[in-house]
Amino acid sequence: MKTIIVTGTPGTGKTTVAKGLAKRLNFAYIDANAIIKKHKISDGYDKKRKSRIIGIKKLNKALIKEISMLKNDKGNKAGCNGIVIDSHLSHYLPKRYVDMCIVTRCNLKELKRRLMKRKYSAGKTRENMDAEIFDVCLVEAKEKGHKIAEIDTTKGIRQTNKIIKILKNNKIIITTK
Q: Which of 104, 143, 144, 166 is most deeply packed, by most CB within 10 A?
């Protein structure tokens, strides 16, 4: 059973890509935000950024437990062929648990539009745009040693066919629905 993580700056299309990929491949979809809530992983609240503070070690432990449960079950209950994990923090997982890391990217003008549509504050929008400018998720994924594929979602976030071709070329998957 393969594990694919989808990471990237908030607003770059991670969730749409991850859900589309999971559906197309019949993989289980894991939303790290749901895991954070379920296991009460938050270490507090950052008022300035208006976001929860997440302990990466705690999140990794919870995600590894979810991966193990699905793999031990061999997907029989869920009827799945693998796992797709969606989070801008997913690239922190140790590479031994991950077969492929998809990094979603977006041009800055489109990213700003998406973040403003979400009603992000000017400061939070700037911080996320800076993260995209400096390739934070990509650099951190490389530092963790992940096998990486970058997907540009600027003109559309439905990139499933392109990702499936990459996964086949890397022998992560063999066939699709």
A: 104
pLDDT attached to residue 10: 97
* Amino acid at position 164, single letter: I
- Residue extents of the structural domains in the chain: 2-169
The CATH class for the domain spanning 2-169 reads alpha beta
**Ordered DSSP codes for 64-77:** HHHHHHHHHTTTTT
- Could you tell me the pTM of the whole model? 0.91
Residues 6 or more apart in contact with residue 66 via CB below 8 angstroms:
30, 35, 83
User: Order of strands, edge to edge, in the sheet holding 2-8?
Assistant: 28-31, 82-86, 2-8, 100-105, 148-152
The gap from C-alpha 77 to its chain's centroid, in whole angstroms, comes to: 23
What are the tens digits of pLDDT across the range 154-176?
Answer: 987 667 788 888 888 888 876 65
Beta strands 82-86; 100-105: pairing state:
unpaired
